[in-house]
Design a protein that fits this description.
By secondary structure, the protein is an alpha+beta fold. The protein contains two helices and four strands; from the N terminus they run H-H-E-E-E-E. Strands 1-2-3-4 form a four-stranded antiparallel β-sheet.
Length: 95
């Protein structure tokens, strides 16, 4: 019986800790991180902005990631950003 209770407690602890890690970015924060990454892309890649095709963003552990797609004269390119929270601020860096 002790082993069974210990197993249940361990499983519950794992699930609870996993939920905390994946809850690092809310939907609104993920949108804010995406906007920051796109703004960084615009500043750093002025020659590619007119060839912008789209982006995707997602949570990755306690951080979030943003991938920006560009099609420049038939050549597809991707620009990747890693975003994380520092207190109340969100920062995104290209990878």
């Amino acid at each position: 019986m002790k082993k069974y209770l210990l197993f249940l407690l361990s499983a519950f602890s794992f699930v609870a800790n996993s939920q905390v890690a994946w809850a690092a970015f809310s939907i609104d924060e993920l949108h804010a991180a995406t906007k920051i990454a796109v703004d960084n892309f615009r500043r750093a890649n002025t020659g590619h902005v007119e060839h912008f095709m789209g982006y995707k963003s997602w949570k990755s552990g306690e951080d979030s990631k943003v991938k920006i797609y560009v099609n420049h004269e038939g050549m597809t390119m991707e620009f990747n950003y890693l975003c994380h929270k520092h207190d109340a601020a969100i920062e995104c860096h290209d990878q």
